[in-house]
Amino acid sequence: MRLLLAEDDMVLGDGLTRSLQQLGYAVDGVKNGADADHALAFQNYDLLILDLGLPKMDGLEVLKRLRFRDKSIPVLILTARDAIGDRVTGLDLGADDYLTKPFDLAELEARVRALVRRGQGAHSNILKNGPLMLNVSGRRAYIDENPLELSARELGVLEILMLKAGQVVGKEQLAEKLCNWDEEIGPNAIEVYIHRLRKKLECADIQIRTIRGLGYLLEKMQ
Question: Which of 88, 150, 156, 175 is 20 to 30 Å apart from 128, CA to CA?
């Protein structure tokens, strides 16, 4: 899953980026509202973490422009402002949740997981497909309660495919959700992750089928 973090406090922004990356998220970071607005106009994200007190363009204006473009990605507001009016305005403009600084990192991580799930149409930390189970918050996958040994990238691919079970997911879509601006994942790398996952899922009678020219489909074997 790919997140955009708009936070002008460099220390806080770097700390949040590292913590979220450790959870398996790809994170792009910007330090002002103008850059956030530009990124949101040209890149698809699974969540926006938005500080209201941004330079160059206020966070509320970023949010207003985002919703005007009819983009429905979840938005978590971070604010040091004590005024209830700012938080109410943010929610009225289409934010999904907010945290007031200072906040506990564990709480932010929990809210991020919840909002990403909601944005993907999932309502639980647990994704299941036959004997295959993925604990999203625990970042572990199991077959019949036996843990699967997966790399972070393999786990990321599996999460996307399970969230989109029954739908075809293209290589470009997988690559886009797995990497941030500082990385690049090519089609060959995606094929390697898919190949490794196929081998590890064989005993579960679940296959990742290639739909030529379109992408990959996670489904139970017939």
Answer: 175
Domain boundaries, the chain: 2-119, 126-220
Q: Which helix (H) or strand (E) holds 11?
A: helix 10-22
* Lookup: tokens for 218: 């996670």
Q: What is the pLDDT of residue 1?
A: 80
| Lookup result for tokens 């929990």 | 110
CA gap 73, 16 in Å, rounded: 19
**DSSP code per residue over 38-80:** HHHHHS--SEEEEESS-SSS-HHHHHHHHHHTT----EEEEE-
Per-residue tokens: 48: 């926006």
Q: What does the pLDDT look like over 136-158, one tens digit per residue?
A: 767 788 888 888 888 888 888 88
- Say how far apart CA 184 and CA 210 lie, in whole Å: 22
- 129's CB contacts (< 8 A; 6+ apart) are 162, 165, 206, 218, 220
Q: Which of 218, 41, 22 is nearest to 134 (CA)?
A: 218
Q: Residue 124 pLDDT more than 70?
A: no
For the chain, what's the residue count?
222
Is 2-119 assigned to CATH 3.20.20.380?
no
More confident residue, 123 or 135: 135
Report the chain's mean pLDDT, rounded to a whole number.
85
Cα–Cα distance measured from residue 128 to residue 131, given in angstroms and rounded to the nearest whole number: 7
Q: How confident is the model at residue 127 (pLDDT cuts 50, 70, 90)?
A: confident
Kindly report the CATH class assigned to 126-220.
Answer: mainly alpha
